[in-house]
């Protein structure tokens, strides 16, 4: 390979990466921080705690190649009396949720520090999918994104719903297998097996290798 071809190859990789977006699903303090709502409710996934440090290099590398990094933030909007509006199914599963949890602008709603520096766009969501009732699709299409790489929590919840909504919107889809976590390995593996029918399932390192290949 001559020295003259190296900048051209680097430019080509950058042009390709410019059409790629990382979607980090719900890597938030109320889910993962020791002082967060889920820690208070003793409902933290041990595997989920490992995700921010694993995903940060992926976000940094994609940004360096000119790609986009987005993050969804599950949000409990307050009603007129200041009380969080919690869906019935969530209230049943997570009775410990209280006023202030996942509140807009709060520390709990905020994306965790380990990945926050790389985020270009945050979207607030009220259900599993990062596309449902958010501006994510408009943002990605406006930015020229045709490929999305999805990671976060939980594999069989927010990640799976976001992936299926991305597929329905004709994005090329990649799911980071070790960039996701669930409350059990069985649920995690079953979700990945299911998602393999609509997208490419690969590890964080495998994706990093494609960026530098």
Rg over C-alpha atoms, rounded to the nearest angstrom: 18 Å
- What CATH calls the topology is Rossmann fold
The end-to-end span amounts to 14 Å
Q: Architecture in CATH? A: 3-Layer(aba) Sandwich
Whole-number count of domains: 1
Using DSSP, what is the number of strands? 6
- In DSSP terms (H or I, runs of 4 or more residues), the helix count works out at 9
Structural class: alpha/beta
| Lateral arrangement of strands in the main beta sheet | 3-2-1-4-5-6
Q: Can you identify the CATH superfamily? A: Isochorismatase-like
Low-confidence stretches: 1-5
- Broad shape: globular
Strand content: 15-25%
SSE string: HEHHHEHEHEHEHEH
- Please state the average pLDDT score: 93
Give the proportion of residues in helices.
Answer: 25-40%
């Amino acid at each position: 390979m001559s020295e003259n071809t190296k900048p051209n190859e680097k430019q080509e990789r950058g042009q390709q990466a410019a059409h790629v977006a990382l979607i980090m699903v719900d890597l938030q303090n109320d889910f993962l921080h020791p002082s967060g709502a889920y820690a208070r409710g003793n409902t933290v996934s041990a595997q989920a705690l490992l995700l921010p440090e694993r995903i940060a290099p992926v976000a940094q590398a994609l940004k360096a190649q000119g790609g986009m990094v987005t993050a969804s933030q599950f949000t409990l909007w307050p009603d007129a009396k200041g009380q969080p509006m919690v869906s019935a199914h969530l209230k049943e599963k997570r009775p410990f949720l209280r006023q202030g949890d996942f509140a807009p602008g709060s520390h709990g709603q905020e994306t965790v520090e380990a990945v926050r520096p790389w985020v270009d766009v945050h979207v607030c969501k009220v259900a599993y999918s990062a596309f449902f009732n958010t501006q994510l699709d408009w943002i990605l299409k406006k930015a020229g994104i045709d490929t999305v790489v999805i990671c976060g929590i939980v594999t069989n919840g927010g990640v799976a719903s976001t992936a299926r909504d991305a597929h329905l919107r004709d994005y090329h889809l990649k799911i980071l297998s070790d960039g996701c976590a669930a409350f059990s390995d069985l649920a995690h593996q079953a979700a990945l097996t299911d998602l393999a029918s609509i997208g490419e399932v690969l590890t964080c390192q495998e994706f990093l290798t494609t960026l530098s290949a």
